[in-house]
C-alpha cells in the first residue's frame, strides 16, 4: 500500500530496527562467544578459533545427551507427524459438531503451562509404576507438546485445499487410499513437513517437561546444558548453544522454502 | 447446471466407502490425550487432596490440609505476587515492543516481509536454555552491558540475579509470539478501511487510532494472553537470569515436588497457582471485551 | 460540487502502465461511468481521482483547481468501495459520523446531519446496528450515507453493486441514479457491467488497456461506436467487412462480399471498413434498402426473443435477434435487410 495512506514514518523503521537487533543480537553473541579463542567468556573475544567446539565435542555428557536428544526428537517427530496429520484430516474434513472441542483438546497441551504438564506426568508415571526410565516418559511428554504444531500447520494447508480435486480423482476411478496418496498428500506435504520440522525442534529444545521426566543417564541436551551452566560458565557452553542456533536457522530456511513462513505464522494463531 | 453439479458431488460423496471409518484418524490422538494428559491432570487434582505422611509419597486419604497450607502461608502469597507482577510487566513491555514490529511487518512489501519473518521466527526456535545463556553473557559481571556502563559511568551494573534481568530475558523470548499474534490481526484489516478513513478526512494518526488500533485488539488480546500465561509459568529464564535469587511460583512448585518430595502440597500449590492464573485471565478478558463491543453483537 | 478534469494522467505499476495519458472532462453534476474489462485501468483512474494513488504523470483538477498533490483527506471526495469498507467496529451511526468528527464539526451539527442523511437513505431505526448485522443492500446504503454526509465535491463509486445479488442490483441501480439526481453531485462510477453503465450514466467512458476508447451518452456509444472493440464490448454486434466506394445522400456506400450497402459513418473512398450492425437491426424481410441473402444455421430460444445464426455469402456469420412470433426453421434460406441509419462503419485497422 502507498506509504501516504498508511502513514509510516522513519521513526517506525528506527524503532523496529532496534527491536530486531534486540532479538537477534543475543543469538549472535552466543555464536561469537563460541568462536572465542580465549579461556573465558569475555568481550571483546581474544581471537577466533574452533577450540571450544572441539572441547564440547570431546565432553562425553554433551555428546551423549546430544545423541539422545536427536534420537528422542526423531521418534517424537515420527509419532507427532503421523498422529497430528491424521487428527488434522479428521478435524478439518469429518468433524462437524465437535470441531471446536476437538481443536481445543488437541491444542490444550500448548495452552496449559508445560511445567504443570511435566509435573502431572511425573506424578502419574511414578504413581502408576510406569516410571521415567529410558525414553518412554520423555517420548510421551514431548509428543503431547509437539503434535499440536503438526496439527496446526496441516490444518492450515487443508483449510485452503480444494476438495473438488479429490472428487475429480474419485470420479476418475481412484479409491480413497489412492486418492490420498496421489492427490491429497502431494498437495499438503509442505504443511506436513513444516509441522514435522516444528515438532522436531520442539522436542529437541524442550525444557520444562524434560526437566521433570529425565532419568539418570538419559539426559537431553538442553537439560545437560542447563546443569552445566549452573556450575560452569565457559565458551564450551556457547559452542553447544551454537548448535541450537544453527538448527533453528536451518529449519526456518527450509520451512520458508516449503510453504512460506507466512502461511505458518498466521495459520498458527 | 447447478443441479447436475449437485448430483455429481452427491454421487462422489456417497460412493461406497472402501476405506476405514474416518474416526480412526482421530482415535490415537484422543487416546494419547486421554491417558497421558487428562488422566495425569485429574490425578494431580486428586493428589492435591491426599494426605502426605511423614514417610512415603502419599496416603489414599482425603484432606483439605494441603490447600490450607498452600493458601495460608504468606510466603506463598509473596511468591505468587512476585510471579504475577513479573509476568504482567513482561506482558506490557512485550506489547509495547512488539506492536511496532507487527505493524511494520504487516505493511512491509512482500519480499521484505519474508526476511523480517525469518528474523522474527528464528530466535523463537532457539532453545530457551540457550537464550537464557545468551543473556547471562550479556548481563553478567563480564558482560557487555556491565562493561559499557562501567566505561561510561564508572559504576558497576550487574543485572544477573535481579528481577530486571528476568524481565529482559522474558521479553526477549516472547516478543516474536506477541508480534505474530498482532500481525495476524493486522493482516485481517482490509486496506480499504484505512483508505476509507483517510478519504473521510482522517489523518494517518487518526486513521490508526480510530480504525487500525481497535480492529487489532483481537490480536492484542490473543498476544497478551499467550504471553502472560507463558510468562507466569516460565521456569528456565527466571532460574538462569535470576541466579536462584528471585523465586517464582514454578520454581517453588518444582522445589516442593522434587526437593521436598511433597507431592500433595506441590499439587495443591499447582492448583492454586493454576486457579489464580485462570481468574486473572478471566478478569482480563472481561475488561477487554468491554473495549470491543462489536465482537459481541 | 466540482467538475473533474484529468490531464495526461499516467500511472505505472512496475513495468505495467495501468493508466496511459488519460484526458477526461467531467461536468458538474454529471454521472460518468468508467466502463471496461477488468485490468483496463478504470479502478486505478478512480483511485487517482480520489488521491489513493499518486500519478506518475499528469494532473487531476477539481473545478480547474489542481489537487494532484493533495492527500485523499484534503480532496473532499466521497468514496464508496466495492466491499463498502464499513468500519466493522462502529455502529451505523458511528460510521456515518466518522468523517464529520474528523472534520471536528460540533456535536450538534453532527447529530443533525447524520440523522438527516440516514433518513434520506431510509436507514432510520438501524443507527445502533453494527455493519455485520445488516443486509447487503443496507450496508450499501450506509456506505452511500457515509460518503454523502460530508457533502463531498465529487462522489466516487467503485463497482458498488458487484457484491449484491441480481435482483437487488437491479433495484439499487435505479436507487443510486435517483439519489444522485436528487443530490446533484458530480459522480464517477466504475463498473465492468455494460447494462449497469447504460442505466446509470449521463455519459459512459469506455476504457481499454489504460486508454480511453470513447466517451459519450449511452445511446451514442451503442449506436455510433468509434471502433470495432467498442461495438463488441457494448452489446452484441455483427461486422461486415468491406471497402468504401463513395458517398451518397450523406451515407457511405460500402462494397462487401455479401452485396453493396449504405450506412452511416466517416471514411474516405477506398478505405477498408467494418459495418457494425446490431443483431436486432437485422430483419427477416425486405423492408429496408440494404438487403442480403443467407441460410439459417442455428436457432436458440431466449424467451423474449429468438437468437439466430445465419450464414451469408463470403463466409459471413451473422447473429440475428428477432421477435419469437415468427419462427424461422434452421436450414431455410432467408432474405435479410437492415436500415442504413442503424448501421455504422468503423475503420477496419482498429479492430
Layout of helices and strands, plus pairs?
The complex is a heterotrimer of chains A (269), B (297) and C (351).
Chain A: H1 3-6, H2 10-34, H3 51-58, H4 60-94, H5 99-111, H6 114-128, H7 136-159, H8 163-171, H9 176-205, H10 208-213, H11 221-231, H12 235-258, H13 261-267
Helix pairs in contact in A: 2-12, 3-12, 4-7, 4-9, 4-11, 5-7, 7-9, 8-9, 9-12
Chain B: H1 2-13, H2 27-48, E1 50-51, E2 59-62, H3 65-72, H4 74-106, H5 110-121, H6 128-139, H7 144-153, H8 163-187, H9 191-199, H10 204-232, H11 236-241, H12 249-259, H13 263-291
Antiparallel strand pairs in B: 1-2
Chain C: E1 4-13, E2 16-26, E3 31-35, H1 42-50, E4 57-62, E5 65-66, E6 77-80, H2 92-102, H3 107-120, H4 136-148, E7 154-158, H5 166-183, E8 186-191, H6 194-200, E9 203-208, E10 211-216, H7 218-223, H8 228-233, E11 238-248, E12 251-256, E13 259-265, E14 272-277, E15 290-301, E16 306-312, E17 316-322, E18 333-338, E19 343-347
Parallel strand pairs in C: 3-8, 3-9, 6-7, 7-8, 13-19
Antiparallel strand pairs in C: 1-2, 1-4, 4-5, 9-10, 11-12, 11-14, 12-13, 14-19, 15-16, 15-18, 16-17
Helix pairs in contact in C: 2-3, 2-4, 3-4
**Strand residues, percent of chain C:** 35-45%
CATH fold-level label of chain A = MetI-like fold
By CATH's scheme, which homologous superfamily of chain A applies?
Answer: MetI-like
Mean pLDDT of chain C: 90
The CATH architecture of chain A: Orthogonal Bundle
What number is the mean pLDDT of chain A? 84
What is the count of structural domains of chain A?
A: 1
**Helix segment tally of chain C:** 8
The biggest beta sheet of chain A reads: none
Number of strands of chain A: 0
Greatest chain-chain contact: A-B, 97 and 102 residues
Secondary-structure element series of chain C:
EEEHEEEHHHEHEHEEHHEEEEEEEEE
Q: Runs of chain A with pLDDT <50, length 5+?
A: 1-7
Sum up the overall morphology of chain C in one term: elongated
| Poorly predicted tracts of residues of chain C | none
Amino acid at each position: 500500500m502507498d506509504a501516504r495512506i498508511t502513514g509510516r514514518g522513519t521513526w517506525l523503521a528506527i524503532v523496529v530496527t532496534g527491536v530486531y537487533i534486540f532479538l537477534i543480537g543475543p543469538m549472535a553473541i552466543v555464536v561469537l562467544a563460541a568462536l572465542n579463542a580465549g579461556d573465558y567468556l569475555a568481550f571483546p573475544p581474544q581471537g577466533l578459533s574452533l577450540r571450544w567446539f572441539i572441547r564440547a565435542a570431546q565432553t562425553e555428557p554433551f555428546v551423549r545427551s546430544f545423541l539422545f536428544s536427536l534420537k528422542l526428537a526423531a521418534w517424537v517427530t515420527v509419532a507427532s507427524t503421523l498422529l497430528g496429520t491424521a487428527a488434522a484430516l479428521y478435524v478439518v474434513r469429518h468433524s462437524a459438531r465437535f470441531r471446536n472441542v476437538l481443536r481445543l483438546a488437541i491444542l490444550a497441551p500448548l495452552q496449559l503451562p508445560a511445567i504443570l504438564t511435566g509435573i502431572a506426568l511425573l506424578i502419574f508415571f511414578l504413581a502408576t509404576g510406569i516410571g521415567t526410565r529410558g525414553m518412554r516418559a520423555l517420548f510421551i511428554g514431548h509428543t503431547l507438546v509437539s503434535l499440536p504444531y503438526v496439527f496446526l500447520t496441516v490444518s492450515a494447508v487443508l483449510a485452503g485445499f480444494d476438495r473438488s480435486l479429490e472428487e475429480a480423482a474419485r470420479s476418475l476411478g481412484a479409491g480413497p487410499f489412492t486418492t490420498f496418496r496421489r492427490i491429497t498428500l502431494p498437495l499438503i506435504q509442505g504443511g506436513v513437513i513444516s509441522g514435522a520440522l516444528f515438532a522436531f525442534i520442539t522436542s529437541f529444545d524442550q525444557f520444562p517437561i524434560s526437566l521433570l521426566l529425565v532419568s539418570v543417564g538419559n539426559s537431553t541436551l538442553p537439560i545437560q546444558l542447563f546443569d552445566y551452566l549452573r556450575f560452569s560458565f565457559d565458551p564450551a557452553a556457547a559452542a553447544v548453544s551454537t548448535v541450537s542456533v544453527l538448527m533453528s536457522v536451518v529449519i526456518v530456511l527450509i520451512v520458508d522454502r516449503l510453504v512460506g513462513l507466512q502461511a505458518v505464522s498466521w495459520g498458527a494463531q | 447446471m447447478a443441479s447436475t453439479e449437485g448430483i455429481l458431488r452427491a454421487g462422489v460423496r456417497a460412493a461406497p466407502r472402501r476405506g476405514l471409518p474416518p474416526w480412526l484418524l482421530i482415535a490415537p490422538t484422543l487416546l494419547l490425550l486421554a491417558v497421558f494428559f487428562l488422566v495425569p491432570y485429574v490425578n494431580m487434582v486428586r493428589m492435591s487432596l491426599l494426605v502426605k505422611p511423614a514417610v512415603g509419597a502419599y496416603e489414599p486419604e482425603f484432606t483439605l490440609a494441603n490447600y490450607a497450607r498452600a493458601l495460608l502461608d504468606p510466603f506463598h502469597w509473596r511468591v505468587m505476587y512476585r510471579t504475577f507482577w513479573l509476568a504482567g510487566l513482561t506482558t506490557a513491555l512485550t506489547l509495547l515492543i512488539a506492536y511496532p514490529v507487527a505493524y511494520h511487518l504487516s505493511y512491509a512489501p512482500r519480499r521484505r516481509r519474508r526476511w523480517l519473518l525469518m528474523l522474527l521466527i528464528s530466535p523463537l526456535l532457539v532453545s530457551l536454555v540457550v537464550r537464557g545463556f545468551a543473556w547471562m553473557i550479556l548481563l553478567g559481571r563480564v558482560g557487555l552491558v556491565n562493561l559499557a556502563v562501567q566505561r561510561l559511568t564508572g559504576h558497576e551494573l550487574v543485572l544477573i540475579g535481579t528481577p530486571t534481568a528476568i524481565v529482559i530475558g522474558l521479553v526477549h523470548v516472547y516478543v516474536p509470539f506477541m508480534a505474530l499474534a498482532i500481525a495476524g490481526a493486522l493482516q485481517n484489516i482490509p486496506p480499504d478501511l484505512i483508505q476509507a478513513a483517510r478519504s473521510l478526512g482522517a489523518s494517518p494518526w487518526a486513521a490508526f487510532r480510530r480504525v487500525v488500533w481497535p480492529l487489532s485488539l483481537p490480536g492484542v488480546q490473543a498476544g497478551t494472553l499467550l504471553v502472560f500465561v507463558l510468562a507466569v509459568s516460565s521456569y528456565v529464564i527466571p532460574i538462569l537470569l535470576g541466579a536462584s535469587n528471585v523465586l517464582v511460583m514454578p520454581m517453588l512448585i518444582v522445589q516442593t515436588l522434587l526437593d521436598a518430595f511433597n507431592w500433595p502440597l506441590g499439587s495443591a500449590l499447582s492448583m492454586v497457582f493454576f486457579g489464580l492464573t485462570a481468574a486473572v485471565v478471566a478478569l482480563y478478558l472481561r475488561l477487554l471485551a468491554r473495549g470491543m463491543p462489536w465482537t459481541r453483537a | 460540487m466540482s467538475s473533474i478534469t484529468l490531464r495526461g494522467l499516467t500511472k505505472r505499476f512496475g513495468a505495467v502502465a495501468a493508466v496511459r495519458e488519460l484526458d477526461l472532462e467531467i461536468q458538474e453534476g454529471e454521472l460518468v461511468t468508467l466502463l471496461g474489462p477488468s485490468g483496463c485501468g478504470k479502478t486505478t483512474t478512480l483511485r487517482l481521482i480520489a488521491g489513493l494513488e499518486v500519478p506518475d504523470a499528469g494532473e487531476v483538477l477539481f473545478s480547474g483547481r489542481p489537487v494532484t498533490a493533495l492527500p485523499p483527506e484534503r480532496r473532499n471526495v466521497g468514496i464508496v468501495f466495492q466491499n463498502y469498507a464499513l468500519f466493522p467496529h462502529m455502529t451505523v451511526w458511528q460510521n456515518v459520523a466518522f468523517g464529520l468528527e474528523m472534520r471536528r464539526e460540533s456535536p450538534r451539527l453532527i447529530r443533525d446531519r447524520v440523522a438527516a442523511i440516514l433518513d434520506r437513505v431510509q436507514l432510520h431505526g438501524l443507527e445502533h446496528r453494527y455493519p455485520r448485522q445488516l443486509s447487503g443492500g443496507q450496508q450499501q446504503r450506509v456506505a452511500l450515507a457515509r460518503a454523502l454526509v460530508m457533502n463531498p465535491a465529487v462522489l466516487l463509486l467503485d463497482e458498488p453493486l458487484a457484491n449484491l445479488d441480481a435482483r437487488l442490483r437491479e433495484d439499487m441501480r435505479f436507487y443510486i441514479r435517483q439519489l444522485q439526481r436528487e443530490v446533484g453531485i458530480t459522480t464517477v462510477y466504475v463498473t465492468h457491467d455494460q447494462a449497469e453503465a447504460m442505466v446509470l450514466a449521463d455519459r459512459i467512458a469506455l476504457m481499454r488497456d489504460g486508454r480511453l476508447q470513447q466517451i459519450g451518452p449511452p445511446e451514442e456509444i451503442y449506436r455510433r461506436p468509434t471502433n470495432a472493440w467498442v461495438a463488441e464490448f457494448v452489446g452484441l454486434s455483427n461486422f461486415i467487412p468491406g471497402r468504401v466506394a463513395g458517398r451518397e445522400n450523406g451515407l457511405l456506400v460500402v462494397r462487401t462480399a455479401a452485396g453493396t450497402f449504405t450506412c452511416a459513418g466517416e471514411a474516405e473512398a477506398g478505405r477498408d471498413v467494418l459495418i457494425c450492425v446490431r443483431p436486432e437491426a437485422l430483419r427477416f424481410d425486405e423492408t429496408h434498402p440494404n438487403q442480403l441473402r443467407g441460410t439459417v444455421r442455428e436457432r436458440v430460444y431466449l424467451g423474449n426473443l429468438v437468437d439466430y445464426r445465419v450464414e451469408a455469402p463470403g463466409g459471413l456469420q451473422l447473429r440475428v435477434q428477432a421477435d419469437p412470433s415468427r419462427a424461422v426453421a434452421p436450414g431455410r434460406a432467408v432474405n435479410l435487410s437492415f436500415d442504413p441509419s442503424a448501421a455504422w462503419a468503423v475503420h477496419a485497422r482498429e479492430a
